[in-house]
Amino acid sequence: MDCIFCKIANGEIPSDTVFEDDNFKVILDLSPASKGHMLILPKTHARDITELGEDIAGKAIVLAAKLGKASMAALGATGFNTLANTGESAGQTVFHCHIHVIPRYDDASSIVSWVPGQSDKEVQKETAKKIAECIR
Ligand code: AMP
Ligand code: ZN
Known about the structure:
Layout: H1 4-9, E1 17-20, E2 24-28, E3 38-42, H2 54-75, E4 79-83, E5 99-104, H3 121-133
Antiparallel strand pairs: 1-2, 2-3, 3-5, 4-5
Bound molecules: adenosine monophosphate and zinc ion (ZN).
GO molecular function: catalytic activity
Domain HIT: 4-111
Organism: Lachnoanaerobaculum gingivalis
C-alpha cells in the first residue's frame, strides 16, 4: 500500500520526530496550525480512529495528554487541542489514522471552533436515543 504515513511511521521517509516507541511515531506537522503542532501516527495502518482498536486508541489518548503537557512546559503553550479528523467531510486528508496535538498560546486566534447553535429539548432527546441505539 502506498501510504505516506506508513512510510513516515516506519522510518522510510524522514520526519521531525518528537517521540517514538513500539506503537507510535510522533512527528511535527509539515504545515503547522501553531508552533509545535504534532501528529501521533500509529505504526500499524488504520484508515481512521474507527479502525484503531481499543488498546492502541487508549494508549494514543494517554500519549496525546503527555505531548500536550510537554508542549506547555517546552514552548510556553497555555493549552492544547487534541483531535482526529475522521472522514472527508470532517477534514481528513491523509487516510492513515493520526491524532493532532495542537499547542495553543494566549495571543493566538481560535483554531478549532464552531458557531454554537440552538438546541431543542425534544430533538436532543430523540438524537441522544438514536445514537445510543447504534453504539457497538
Ligand atoms: P488531516 O487533514 O486531519 O488528515 O491531517 C493531515 C495533516 O498531515 C495535515 O495537517 C498536514 O499538514 C499533515 N501532513 C501531510 N503530509 C505530511 C508530511 N509529509 N509530514 C508531516 N505532516 C504532513
Ligand atoms: Zn498507512
